[in-house]
Amino acid sequence: MALLPAPYDLQAVDMSCTVATLVATVVLLSTARRAGANDRRWRLLVALTTFGGFLIALANSWHGIVHGADVYNEIELVHATFLLAYLPALAGLLLLPSELVLARAGPRSLPRPHGRHWYVITVLDSALIVGSGALVAWSTLLAPVVHRTTLSRPALAIVFSSIAIGLVLVVVAALLATARRPRSLPTLILLAAGMAVMSVTMGVYLYLAAATNGVVPAAVHLGYLVSWLLLISAALVPPPPGRPPSEPSPQTGTWVFSVRAVLPYLAFGAAGAVTLTRLATGTRADELDFFGLIGLLVFLVCRQLATIGENARLLSLVDTSRRELHHQAFHDPLTGVANRALFAVRLEQAVAAHVRDRRRLAVLYCDVDDFKQINDNLGHSVGDALLQVVAGRLQSGTRDTDTVARLGGDEFAVVLGGAGGDPEPVARRLGNIMRAPFRLGEHSYPVGISLGLVVSELSPGTGDHGAATVTADSLLRDADIAMYAAKRAKRGGLVVRRAGRPSSDSPIHLGGQLAAALRGEPGSGTLDVVYRDVVDLRDGRVVAFDAGPCWNHPDIGRVDAGRLYRLADRGGLARAIDTFLLHRCCEDLGHDTADAGCHGAAAAADRPAVLVPISAARVAEPSLATEILEALAEQRLPPRVIVPAFSAAAAEGGDPVAARNVLGRLRRHGVRCALTEAAGDAATLRLLRLLPIDIIRLDAALTSVDGEVPANRDAGEAGAGTGAGNQGRDGEGDPALADTIRSALVGAAIRRGLTVIAPAIRGERQEHRLAADGCQLGEGPLYDRERQGRRRHGPALV
């Protein structure tokens, strides 16, 4: 620090250094009070060092004033304790707020964060570099001069040690800048510059003092004052703001880390080479050369041990990260149970063991009833908590050898395999556990949980063909079918199936029977048409009918239009359903005409029209127009009585030019066309602008009034199969927005001369409101309930 001789003519410089050290201490302490926690630590530590420098400078000045003599020759080895004042500055440099610098090779080039080993390695590297340089400087420059001087040997040793420790601080700052980027680079530069100026000043002073027996020019002592002023400047640099979390970590080239890693070894090699060269040339080497090399070797061994410790920590971090990544890849982050990927692996393993050992295997499928309503009404946080409780109950009710997994959303599955025993009691016990109310927050809620269990049993006599039919996919599919059967039973329950046995209500089985019913094969049920009234909202007269298919199944009863269309889409039967519905409606209209004895223009004027849903994919097919016109001609029906209706939502991705040609041909023959599920979105407006449409039926989400819930068309309305449903449509869930969109859409339709049908009308107030908004016609549960009190016939659809 300031272990300097104090010549009488340099007392002014000594006093200036004393004042500078005191100012540096005060500035560091005052700025530390206003700084954050991270920035405060290094300021307090460096303040300890500057305060030690103040005490040494004060003693130096006092000795020069009182004794009028140089303090240099008064220095003894016991004064080496003053070197401890450097340690707080070293700790302050290491704790200077900084961020890890990553190599550009990738984000895992260096560990994050650094451990304690890194600080030890940095200090040892600095000691090796400075020690090697000091040994070379001693051998080549200082040793010949010191051997001839009469100055105090303890003073020389302490000053030489002060120079070395000061340079260690400088090298620590340099190495710190390579591996970590300081948040305040000016602070680090000023601190390192202050230490460097002080060390260089001491080095020059030591050389000149040894060469001239203490006669040193006054200009040399000004370096101490400059070093303290640099430290004061570092303390005055304002604390930097924190880095935003979104800002990427700083990066640098990998060569920087390579140079940093080999630099201590190069320095040690250079020191050893100089010593060996001196010995080879016959130059006498003193004891300090040998002891210095031994000391550097000890530092090198300690550095290697610290490196081994750091590498062990890195390997531990890599292993921990690998396990965490593996767990994240195969477990659900919300519930902690297995995810779909791990479930698939476990199920494949269970099936392989099942086929090999002929042991019983079961898969349980679990689904939360009305989970979407729970999310919408209670919030997603409550929904997440419910999923966590469901997962916990499944885990607590199964064995450690079973696998509980969340397949996605509110669906869970459990592999029940391995040991003997009947899995059905286990599933029923889980069902009882699930029926208990769920405690979510401060309230308890009864939640229905539907469970589907599929059990596979392979007896020792089962052949390879029977075993081959049991696969992971088939088990999961059968469990899913059983679960949906339980869901149809309402409010939770368990349905058990045997693997490989077809279910009367499975989609695959029903699809085959539907195809048979369309062909008219006996034993597959009968297809029929359900007509729903379309009324004039002004006087309540029935002016049209909305047709929809239904299927009277011999085992499961009536299958409504929504489920029927889904089965048809899955089995590629949509075209057949369209054909059946068109021809049946024309036949019914023809029979009504014959029964009433009406012919000619009077029949056409009095006969209500029928909206016939058509798959949107067929609207662009020229054969559709031909089929409709031929069906009308076959029953001698006027063209206005059949209104082909297709969904705007389903037709969005079709070919509008081809569809315009088909619908234009129908219009030229007098057939009107309807666009259903018309919403206020861009697709609907585009279709209205491009296609020759005469009638629109609004999307059910636009007809709710004052928070009334719209009817679910999938539950049985005739047009359910014509589109993709109402989820995500404009205005759904927001009555005010729905009113605005409805008013704009109805106004635009009226200006274009279109007839507007409002679906899903459930009450009188809703009926009056929609009529006031301009909707001419309406349909829905209100008219289904009051059908007997309304007229069955009226003027044709306007």
Features:
alpha/beta; eight-stranded mixed β-barrel; elongated; disordered N terminus; five-stranded mixed beta sheet
Number of helices: 25
Sheet-strand content, in percent, reads 5-15%
Unreliable segments (pLDDT under 50, ≥5 consecutive)? 1-8, 104-113, 600-604, 709-729, 785-798
- Major sheet attributes: 8 strands, mixed, barrel
Q: Can you give a write-up of this model?
A:
- The chain is α/β, with parallel strands linked by helices and 798 residues long.
- The chain has 25 helices and 20 strands.
- The chain has an eight-stranded mixed beta barrel with strand order 12-13-15-16-17-18-19-20, surrounded by four helices.
- Strand 17 (674-678), helix 22 (682-690) and strand 18 form a beta-alpha-beta unit.
- Helix 6 packs antiparallel against helix 7 (218-236).
- It is elongated and about 140 Å long.
- The termini are far apart.
- The model is unreliable at 1-8, 104-113, 600-604, 709-729 and 785-798 (pLDDT under 50).
Provide the fold topology.
Elements (H helix, E strand, L loop, with lengths): L10 H24 L2 H31 L18 H9 L3 E3 L1 E2 L12 H33 L4 H27 E3 L2 H28 L5 H19 L14 E2 L1 H27 L6 H44 L9 H18 L3 E8 L2 H8 L1 H17 L6 E6 L2 E6 L6 H13 L2 E3 L2 E3 L3 E8 L7 H5 L3 H17 L4 E6 L8 H13 L6 E11 L5 E12 L3 E3 L1 H11 L2 H23 L3 H7 L2 E5 L8 H13 L7 E6 L8 H13 L5 E5 L3 H9 L4 E4 L36 H17 L3 E4 L5 H9 L4 E2 L2 H5 L13
Parallel strand pairs: 2-4, 10-11, 13-15, 15-16, 16-17, 17-18, 18-19, 19-20
Antiparallel strand pairs: 1-3, 5-7, 5-10, 6-7, 8-9, 12-13, 12-20, 13-14
Helix pairs in contact: 1-2, 1-7, 2-3, 3-5, 4-5, 4-8, 4-9, 5-6, 6-7, 8-9, 11-12, 16-17, 18-20, 20-21
